[in-house]
Amino acid sequence: MSISSPDHARPASDIPVKMELDDPHGVADLQESEVSRVRALHGVWRWALILATLATILLCINQQFSLRFFVDVTQLNTEYFYLLIALMLPFTFLIFPGTSKADLDRVPWYDVVLFIATFAAAIFLMMNIRKAAQFGWEFDGAPKPVIAAGLVMWFVLMEALRRTGGWSLLLSVFPFTLYPLFADAKWLGPFRGTQSTLEQTTAYHVLSGESLLGIPIQAFADTVIGFLVFGTALMMTGAGKFFINIAFAMCGTFRGGAAKVCIFASGLLGTVGGSIVSNVLTAGTMTIPAMKKTGFTPSYSGAIEACASTGAVLAPPVLGATAFVMAQFMNTSYADVALAATIPSILYYFGLFAQVDSYAARHKLEGIPREELPRFMDALKEGWYYLFVIAILVVMLLYFKRESHAPFYATALLVILHQWSGPAPWKKGNTAVLALSIVLTGLMVWLDLQNAYLWGMCILAALNEFFPGKNWGGARWIHFLELNGKTFVELIAILAGCGLLIGAFSLTGVISSLANDLLAIAGGNVFLLLIMCAFTSLILGLGLTTTSCYIFLAILVAPALEKLGLNKMAVHMFIFYWGMLSSITPPVAIASFAAAGIAGAPAMKTGWESMWVGSIIYFIPFFFVLNPALLLQGDSPYLEAFGLTGLACLGIVFICGGIQGYQAYVGDLRRAGAMEWPLRVLLVIGGFVMATPGGGINPLSQWQIIALAACILAPTVLIALALIRRGDARLAVS
Predict the structure, then answer these.
(1) Residue 248 burial by CB count (10 A; 0-12/13-18/19+): exposed, middle or buried?
(2) Quick one: DSSP state of residue 2?
(3) How far apart, in whole angstroms, are the C-alpha atoms of residue 274 and residue 407?
(4) Quick one: which of 264, 240, 243, 248 has its CA closest to 373?
């Protein structure tokens, strides 16, 4: 945050402090990691990463747009996957040090050895994958050199998991990758399955489409790369500054305005970012100081930012890497997953707003004076094209269903609009460039050349580099590739390693029998199984990344819940939500700890306050499992979803009023004297009942639920009003 003043001669007290955000791009380029020590690459290694990233993006474009390398050569998908692994996975050992004492300024010899071994194994397997598909080597009969390369790949993947996700992730995944070797052991009980030899297991892991080359890597190769490129382009063109200025302009003057700005800004960033920690470090540098300045405690300020940023992986259209994996697991489009996430994310952010409003009212916290805030129209004029590009992205996702193409179109359009949004872009020869680009694009469309739209925008973007405007220049493009490369490296390490988890259970065939065993343990009780699943998700989420936790439970628990008749989308979204909650739940609480560092607050205190502030998120998954209309699932869900959302919002108002001790339109419950806490508990219970969908697996109908909630809330509110007024009258008399 920078402070500017038009008149340095005036006293400081008379000068309004104008809040302006410095461009926060690049402050957090890693998406999933729970480790903080990364090595900055220099010299030849840095240029190798940049070139490998460029090759990765071009390979993805070639595959998604069926360009066939312009020479009519078509790759198998499995060959394409191994090329991506060969380009990105080796850099894990250069960027992530092997130990806490490893040198961060130079690359040690053993990391170079791992780099070479990973690259060689991936290339060798890629060269043999076509034969493997032809002769069925993934099941038996693979040559010894292929098995040897597979063992090398298996080892480096586990080491890559350890470096990116920590020992907890390695110890959670590695034993299961070995599971097929002893799957028939009696002591495994319900986990017993078909046993395989080391050669068979290795071949299946590295050659089949169910393990290393399975769902996680498929999601990465098909959609994740494009959306990561789009997210990086947004941040590097200044979207963070735009969204936060818009939030300050719209919400800054409200009661508790700085906290509401934090929620709104983090929500806007989350719709296109998909990374929790990145959101904290981007928005938090501006919003946390503003909250502290207006009266919020440091720990509460950090908690609000942590909770608001947690919504980054919940808010469409870009939900983070886990959502893409989820779409692959359910064999549905990413657009369906993003659409299903809409109402739950609205309920979550509405709950945060209600929490902050009640807290601010209880503590009499005012908003930020208008003269200290940016003007809405000024912010909009400066960055209107971000909204336009996001609208284009949503249309392409939901209407045209082009999820693998949409982020590349949106990125090219964003770069062009950003470069042409400078002062007087039509001057100094740019008119000729624009006219030439339009003519070339029109010619390609008229000739019906493939992907004319993309080519036309790329030509315009390239030509724009030679003319004035907001152009990045060579150094900016190189930084753009470097940031993308670091993100690609980390994600491919986590996703490829977790793919072996899927392969192990697929090879042993234990998944279907395990679902029956879980049902037997729960006695067929859907609520008990949901609670078991939620508790397991939370515990696993404490030690695993969101993506690995989701993959683990999607294999083990989801089939059992689906067998009970629950909606498939609701089941997978339930697992996703509960696995993600570890980001604000101690003892891990990575989002809370990151925010605490900015706020200068105790980490654990911020974590516990994050749980308190974001408590509504613990209820929401149960709401949409009870009625999938909240995920826009069903034959005609929209009207039903509208009604359920309204009831949920009403219930959330009462829940937050009880949690914070200030009920909207009732007042500060401290003035109710000894009845404060009984009233707060009843408000939370009544609000929860009001927000709970009826029917379906719920034995009560919707009208019965509403009646029960009214029976709890009506007398509670009336008693609270009477006690508060009596307390006010006593104060007035005294």
Answers:
(1) buried
(2) E
(3) 14
(4) 248
- Note the pTM of the prediction, 2 decimals: 0.83
How far is the C-alpha of 221 from the C-alpha of 653, rounded, in Å? 42
On whether the CB atoms of residues 573 and 323 are closer than 8 A, the answer is no
The pLDDT, as a whole number, for residue 463 is: 53
CA distances from 497 to 160, 176, 213, 689 (A): 8, 11, 10, 42
Q: State how far the Cα of 40 lies from the Cα of 43, in Å rounded to an integer.
A: 10
Please give the pLDDT value at position 472: 62
User: Residue 302, Cα to own-chain centre: how many angstroms?
Assistant: 19
pLDDT band (50, 70, 90) for residue 448: very low
Q: What is the mean pLDDT of residues 351-355?
A: 93
C-beta of residue 283 within 8 angstroms of C-beta of residue 257? no
Structure-model confidence comparison of residues 147 and 190, the more confident one: 147
Integer CA distances (angstroms), 469 to 426, 428, 721, 724, in order:
9, 10, 60, 61
Best CA proximity match to 549, nearest among 585, 496, 595, 498: 498
Q: How far apart are CA 76 and CA 59, in angstroms?
A: 12
Residue 489 · residue 91 · CB < 8 Å:
yes
| CA 270 – CA 318 distance, rounded (Å) | 8
pLDDT, position 537: 81
Count the Cβ atoms, other than its own, within 10 Å of residue 134: 8
Provide the pLDDT for residue 582.
Answer: 79
- Burial bucket for residue 4 (CB in 10 Å: 0-12, 13-18, 19+): exposed
Distance spanning both ends of the chain, measured CA to CA: 46
Tokens 């988890």 identify what position? 501
Residue 616 phi, psi (nearest 5): -60, -25
Non-local (6+) Cβ contacts of 402 within 8 A are 396, 409
CA dihedral for 369, 373, 378, 380, sign (positive or negative): negative
Name which of 633, 616, 620 is nearest 696 in CA terms.
633
Contact by Cβ (8 Å): 396, 413:
no
pLDDT in tens, 42-101: 889 999 999 999 999 999 988 888 777 766 777 889 999 999 999 999 999 999 998 888
The two structure tokens encoding residue 139: 């099941």
Q: Which residue from 275, 228, 407, 234 is spatially nearest to 335, judged by alpha carbons? A: 407
Cα distance between residue 313 and residue 307, in whole Å? 11
Name the pairing type of β-strands 2-4 and 667-668: unpaired
Q: Which is it for the CA torsion 90, 92, 94, 97, positive or negative?
A: negative
Q: CA Rg, the chain, in Å?
A: 27
Cβ distance 39 to 47 under 8 Å? no
Answer yes or no: is pLDDT of 473 > 80.
Answer: no
CA distance 568 to 71: 42
